[in-house]
């Protein structure tokens, strides 16, 4: 049987302190919308969206 390798960000409680945030941003060059993704600490989520 094959083994399944699972990658994780969690080491104890450390993984629960971060959130993956995705926001839609309008490109100044083309005017098209692009998605900006970042893994941010929970305390800085509001900062990311402002």
Could you tell me the mean pLDDT? Answer: 81
- The gross shape turns out to be flat
Radius of gyration: 16 Å
Strand order of the largest sheet: 1-2
The secondary-structure class comes to: mainly beta
Tell me the number of strands. 2
By DSSP (H or I, 4+ residues per run), the number of helices equals 1
Q: Spell out the helices and strands N to C.
A: EEH
Helix content: 10-25%
Distance between the termini: 49 Å
**Residue fraction in strands:** 35-45%
Low-confidence stretches: none
Largest sheet: number of strands, sense, barrel closure: 2 strands, antiparallel
Structural description of this entry:
It contains 1 helix and 2 strands; from the N terminus they run E-E-H. It has 50 residues and is mainly beta. It has a domain at 16-49. Strands 1-2 form a two-stranded antiparallel ribbon. The model has no long low-confidence stretch (mean pLDDT 81).
Summary tags:
mainly beta; two-stranded antiparallel sheet; 50 residues; 1 helix; 2 strands
Task: Summarize the topology.
Layout: E1 18-26, E2 33-41, H1 45-49
Antiparallel strand pairs: 1-2
Brief description of this entry?
This protein has 1 helix and 2 strands; from the N terminus they run ββα. It is mainly beta and 50 residues long. The chain has a domain of 34 residues.
């Amino acid at each position: 049987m094959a083994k399944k390798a699972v990658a994780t960000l969690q080491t104890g409680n450390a993984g629960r302190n971060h959130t993956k945030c995705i926001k839609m941003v309008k490109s100044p060059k083309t005017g098209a919308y692009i998605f900006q993704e970042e893994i941010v600490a929970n305390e800085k989520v509001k900062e990311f969206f402002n």
